[in-house]
Automatic annotation (TrEMBL):
This is Kirre like nephrin family adhesion molecule 1b. It is found in: Membrane. Residues 556-576 are annotated as: Disordered. GO terms for molecular function: cell adhesion molecule binding. GO terms for cellular component: cell-cell junction; plasma membrane. PROSITE patterns: IG_LIKE (PS50835). It is a single-pass type I membrane protein. Keywords: Disulfide bond, Glycoprotein, Immunoglobulin domain, Membrane, Transmembrane, Transmembrane helix. The chain crosses the membrane at residues 7-28. It comes from Nothobranchius furzeri. InterPro entries: CD80_C2-set (IPR013162), Cell_adhesion_signaling (IPR051275), Ig-like_dom (IPR007110), Ig-like_dom_sf (IPR036179), Ig-like_fold (IPR013783), Ig_sub (IPR003599), Ig_sub2 (IPR003598). Residues 556-567 have a biased composition (Polar residues). It comes from the Eukaryota. Residues 79-175, 182-258, 267-347, 351-453 form the Ig-like domain. The gene is KIRREL1.
Amino acid sequence: MSHGVNLVLYVPNIPTITFLGLFVASSWPRYRILRALDTGQYNLEISNSELSDDSLYECQATEAALRSRRAKLNVLIPPEDPVVEGTPELLLMAGSPHNLTCVTRGAKPAAHIQWTKNGVPVDGAYHSTEVLPDRKRVTSRSYLPITPVDTDSSSNFTCVASNPAVPMGKRATVTLNVHHPPTVTLSIEPRSVLEGERVTFTCQATANPPIMGYRWAKGGVLLEGARESVFVTTADHSFFTEPVSCQVFNAVGNTNVSILVDVHFGPILVVEPRPVTVDADSDVTLNCKWSGNPPLTLTWTKKGSSMVLSNNNQLHLKSVSQVDAGQYVCKAIVPRIGVGETEVTLTVNGPPIISSDPVQYAVRGERGEIKCYIASTPPPDKIVWAWKENVWEKEKGTLMERYTVEQSKPPFQGGAVLSTLTINNVMESDFHSPYNCTAWNSFGPGTMIITLEETAEFVTIHSPVFLHLSGVGSRGQQPKQGGPDFPLPCHLGQLLQGKPKAFPRQLRDIVPPVCPGSSFRTPPSRTCLENLTILTRCPSHLNWLLSMWRSSGSTLSPSQMTETSCPISKGEPSHPAEKTNFGRLYLRSCSFSHYPKLVTMGEGRNVNQPVNPELYLYH
């Protein structure tokens, strides 16, 4: 359109010709006929072609009754400049679908529309056309569906409209402004820490519009005062299971990112085992759960045994009996970090179990006790003592004046019942009868026969010299000065030679050597023995001490001890613990000249204050 057009007609061998168009030329000033008679050409020239010129044309030679073939004049019209809706900058939300729309009007033929993103062709558009009222021109529309992301911000989308009139096309561009909540990356340094070490969290974020602030939380609980992009704290085991989160917000939204810390920590009890009480032949499951990092190793054992029963959180026991009752240990080991353990009690209902010593001791003329330790679940309904012609049951029957029975629940027996038969002024006949202790509960009876044996003497060590108690309650302690009395059987000679006889239960593990650094097979030092006063009538005691004296290298001989320096005397001892109804033989060192000049016994003493510690061996 707007260009000149020549329609060429060539008519050979006809000297005269008339064009129909000549008759209308005056009505169409843009039309004119150009004749070249010598060549027989008759051309129709149309200047400044218009859409109305788009038609069929025919040349007629009326005198010769001739007509040309029809010629079609196709007037091309370029599209108007395309328009992209939202130009020049289109505000979109990230993640929200949108159709980019490009419109170009009045093209003939219809324009072809192509999209590019930052100069790169984009497919996926769909199109529509609309024919204008002149039935020749067309309006074209193109729609490009997009779902913008945050990185699309500032991207340029261009639509190019072209047809044969403008092969290079016409362009329209729109720039995207994509608003989005913050995009967040949360990092931690160092990646792995020991419990108690410091750790740094860094929250890196981009946003459009700009970031307005930060919030930090741990395990879903807001951390007050943490408002910057970096958070520094000390890690404990909770950081292993409770994530730290960074929340970044701007005008259009917020983003929350979390991370767990690889904290290395020792075992922590998560599920504590609960005591279980069952009947015999029942199946039992004990539960125990530990947490630790690195992954822990879990073992179940019975207390007092090293046999591993399970390596799982649960310990399954089949058809338990009373033998299975007791404490079970759930132990967790975190390699190179630490160890934790807990205990749980399994109680198996059954008849009472009596665990007393079958042989117990008493001194004639003294007060004696026979103890019956009864472990029973459920508790015993009835406890009966029987000996000679005597039968005792609580609230039933009577006993001779010399006999009494008491019941208690000593804590060291784990809640068991202790029934004690006390005999006042033990007689010869008391050693000749077995003592039957029987207890009943709903599952049946339990019984034990106890024998009472006579012991002639007891030994009490009461001395300011060092005593090393290697038994219950004192294991691993350093020797200490003084202390309480410790009654032992008269068979000290056998005991000191490594051949102990049985003696009272509560002292089974108490074995005090006479001197520090000595044992039953190692002689005591000279210094120790030179600071002893001996009171005894048990020959084995004296003989052993005198033999130890000889082996110590003392300058004093036993004869000097017994006859010269330490005369034998009779009389009442000064120490209250010695006062009994029996006579005594004293062996006492009377000469201070035999004591060392410097005595060290746990406390510093003046060299001019010799100490006369005593070892009492008495009935």
